From TrEMBL:
SUPFAM superfamilies: ACT-like (SSF55021), Formate/glycerate dehydrogenase catalytic domain-like (SSF52283), NAD(P)-binding Rossmann-fold domains (SSF51735), Serine metabolism enzymes domain (SSF143548). It holds the Pfam family ACT. This is D-3-phosphoglycerate dehydrogenase. The keyword Amino-acid biosynthesis applies. GO terms for molecular function: phosphoglycerate dehydrogenase activity. Belongs to the D-isomer specific 2-hydroxyacid dehydrogenase family. The gene is serA. Its EC number is 1.1.1.95.
């Protein structure tokens, strides 16, 4: 067994592989072409950020069984291409959570006490301390957006500073808030009451531009903001304006929507926020600690060794290790189950305290565990900051306080096989059902409405009053924004009452268009869903 490592990782990770009897070749700095020329002789590939593992490279890796990214994200690996080849893709989702939490705290102190600015002043020979009158954290209100693992670590540390800590996360159970002694509030309350806002959410269609002009206008004058999560969650142009207007007293950003090239000789980066003295920007240091680098190297080394020895990778981001001949059989069901989780959470955007999955017909009982995990993965990807995969999704659901029930019946009705997902929230119980035919997943029940559609990348999920002209209104508005409707499913249970409409569209509809649809007479709810 041979592993190719194309970027430097901590020696502790290399030693783990060697101790397992695995041959390791560290070839740092190879070009894309050079990697493609040699990758066919390796069973595993370990990269960090610089190596772009695209479809061409994956096809050249005819013997690859696992690709590992020694880090949290997976942006530089074509996961879909790897999945088609039956290659497991792994990362290290928990390796830097402490590093990210501690950096957040460091940036909070920096903008409350102007530490970087005072340091630069002293470096320039100016020791006037009157310029740097700070603000204490004690007895102020900290608002945390996103209460996952990192958000909880930050909360513990801010409470130790004597702060009142409130948090907004609609996908986290009340029990978790109580465990950490944090007040659960809605988004509007957090914006209005916080002296400090710190962001710890994933970047999803729902959280992109989560904080923009209208949110800034609701904040306390003098609020301070920290983002160590993902660029794009804050609208940077609107942040600049809010600072100039005096709404935001200071901001600290470790992530930017458009990140610079981190190689100095290639640097041609400009961002207006760099002009502002009360903005601290760091070059994406969230994982840049000695401990985090060791953690991610050790984590991916263990994952690679497990796969090569025939075991299961705990941090697989795509598929469990099925035999290739079984892959074609299970893949449509995995994709269907995951899509069902994504559709529910995007359509409802509410915490489900119980999820019951019922498997009907001839679905192999050996598959159901992975199908359940796939459905939970889809649900959690839009609701937690943690990296969610097929292996950890059940554990993460448990941590969120979700009761998961799985059952099997041989009665499939008119369908050979069927998956039914029943979501229980504080207010209601909603069901989705799907099946697979012609090797293609189909949704056949959408919250009690009979439908038949294939989950697609871009979908409009609409609830409306059943009355003439609704289809025309929707088509006109979507067309105004240059988006084509590929297919449309319409269903009602009773004439003149509520109906549902599912439209497959050729691209993501802008927020402005979604708002226009929401404000159209007769439309009750609109969701721009992305799978």
């Amino acid at each position: 067994m041979k592993v190719l490592v194309t970027e430097r990782i901590a020696k502790e990770g290399i030693e783990i592989l060697k101790n397992e009897g695995i041959e390791v070749d560290e070839k740092i700095g190879l070009s894309h072409e050079e990697i493609c020329n040699i990758i066919g002789g390796y069973d595993a590939l370990i990269v960090r950020s610089a190596t772009k593992v695209n479809e061409e490279m994956i096809k050249c890796g005819k013997n690859l069984k696992v690709i590992a990214r020694a880090g949290v994200g997976i942006d530089n690996v074509d996961v879909e291409a790897a999945t088609k080849q039956g290659i497991i893709v792994v990362n290290a989702p928990d390796g830097n959570i402490m590093a990210a939490a501690e950096l957040t705290i460091g940036l909070i102190f920096s903008i409350f006490r102007y530490i970087p600015q005072a340091y630069m002043s002293c470096k320039q020979g100016d020791f006037r301390r009157s310029k740097f009158k700070g603000v204490e954290l004690y007895e102020k209100t900290a608002g945390i957006i996103g209460f996952g693992k990192i958000g909880a670590l930050v909360a513990e540390r801010l409470k130790a500073c004597g702060m009142r800590v409130i948090a907004y996360d609609p996908y986290v159970s009340d029990e978790k808030f109580k465990k950490y002694g944090v007040e659960k509030v809605d988004f509007e309350t957090l914006l209005k009451e916080s002296d400090l806002i710190t962001i710890h959410t994933p970047k999803t269609p729902e959280t992109y531009n989560l904080i923009s002009e209208k949110e800034f206008k609701k904040m306390k004058k003098g609020v301070r903001i920290v983002n160590c999560a993902r660029g794009g969650v804050i609208n940077e142009k609107d942040l600049y304006n809010a600072i100039k207007e005096g709404i935001v007293a200071a901001a600290a950003l470790d992530v930017l929507e458009k990140e610079p090239n981190f190689e100095l000789e290639k640097q041609e980066y400009y961002n207006p926020l760099l002009e502002l003295d009360n903005v601290v920007i760091t070059p994406h240091l969230g994982a840049s600690t000695q401990e985090a680098q060791v953690n991610v190297a050790v984590s991916v080394a263990k994952e690679v060794a497990a796969v090569l020895k025939g075991g299961i990778a705990k941090n697989a981001v795509n598929l469990p290790a099925f035999e290739k001949e079984k892959l074609d059989e299970i893949l449509p069901y995995l994709e269907l189950a995951e899509a069902m989780g994504k559709i529910f959470i995007q359509a409802e955007r509410v915490f489900a305290k119980k999820i019951e999955i019922i498997y009907s017909g001839q679905i192999d009982e050996k598959m159901t565990t992975w199908l359940t995990r796939a459905l939970l993965k889809g649900y959690l990807e839009f609701s937690v900051q943690d990296t969610v995969n097929y292996v950890n999704s059940q554990v993460l659901a448990q941590e969120q306080g979700i009761e998961v029930i799985e059952s099997k019946t041989h009665e499939g009705g008119k369908f050979k096989n069927m998956i039914t997902a029943r979501f229980t929230t504080d207010e209601k119980v909603l069901e989705l059902a799907g099946t697979v035919y012609n090797n293609e997943g189909r949704i056949i029940d959408f919250f009690g409405y009979k439908v038949d559609f294939k989950p697609e990348k871009y979908m409009l999920l609409i609830q409306n009053i059943d009355k003439p002209g609704m289809i025309g209104k929707i088509g006109t508005i979507v067309g105004e924004y240059g988006i084509n409707i590929a297919t449309m499913q319409v269903s009602r249970n009773k004439k003149g009452e509520k109906a549902v409409m599912v439209c497959e569209i050729d691209g993501a509809l802008p927020d402005e268009a979604v708002e226009k649809l929401k404000n159209t007479d007769g439309i009750l709810r609109v969701t721009m869903a992305k799978l």
